[in-house]
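I am going through a labmate's work and have reached the protein record below. What it holds is a sequence and that sequence's fold in token form. Please read both lines and tell me whether the tokens look consistent with the sequence. Do not assume that whoever made the record got everything right. Thanks in advance; the entry in question is below.
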Amino acid sequence: MRDNIFKTEILDYASKLDAVTNSYGEIVKAASAIVEEHDNSSTVYLINHTSKLIKSAESSKDLKRLANALKDSIMKFYGYHYILESQDKGLEDDNDTRSLDELLDDLNGLIGLEGVKAKVNDLIAFQTVQMLREKQGLHSHKGTMHLAFTGNPGTGKTTVARIVGRIYKQIGLLSKGHFVEVSRTDLIAGYQGQTALKVKKVIDEAKGGVLFIDEAYSITENDHSDSYGRECLTELTKALEDYRDDLVVIVAGYTEPMNHFFASNPGLKSRFNTFIEFPDYSAEELWSMFVKLCGENDYRLADNVEECVRDIFLKQVKDKKENFANGRLVRNIYDDITMNHARRVVKMNEPSRDDLSLIIRADVENIRLDYCNDENTMAE
């Protein structure tokens, strides 16, 4: 996907609006989540927030103009993204020149997920041998290639799904190996009879590659009253069987809702023979992800910073609640810390390369207090 030309515009207007309204980085944080992750909650927050500012009688003309500019830039961002996505569908995967060994290295190089990687490697080994047996005229049984990934958000389900698609292409199981990600809104129509057509369109786009259905349980979230959801499952179940030789469907979502989803539809469950649970990351794994993220973006950590950041992850893991954010937590903490770094460095007169890249303890201290609910300032 090419870069979205409205990304910089959103961040620029968000920074200005944040400063004018004394939002202490909240608007910038939400804008960053939009441009980096297309985060739905952040989008809703900013659209609602800017709408309130525009309608408020207390807002000055300049403030209303700035809020309206940010709101418009968000709309343009998503509109342009849709156009690029339509133009580039499948292009990224077609241009993926990684060899099988490189793809396996990418899979096995993922932080944590040891049990997941072991199961995926076993699956790849089995399918590879079946392909080799077929070429030698021996009986082969590839079985169903469809997979179910369960676990909390931010545990790498989408990343692993993409790699699996490319590996299956490399070993000859899939003709294209491209990746199509959808959710309930992409499958369910607003009128009776239209859902089946919508599902067929998605299936046609995904044939030869991987169809990834995130939060698949939401298809039937309204239980018995949801006739559209049942219509979708009927068409999807048929496609799982009809195109099993050149289509991999991966359904993903939280563990308990996914268990309920399959329990309520035995016919659907029978189309899947591989269920992989993605565990939450440990504090050490989250720390490793944070260090990797900093390195990839040319940030260095001062010697006395490591303990501060580790404290955050240890506390978050110890007190974690249901639907723990995992990798998204790492991204949020990284965004908060680099924002503090930016606030500090921007006040410097001609900051050096070292200033621009070094994260110091002062950039982290208030972040630790926020995430650890600690009333005491850290001892030096």
In short: The two ends are 45 Å apart (CA to CA). The beta strands are 147-151, 179-182, 210-214, 248-253, 274-278, 300-301, 358-359. Residues 374-380 have pLDDT under 50 and may be disordered. Residues 132 and 138 are 9 Å apart (CA to CA).
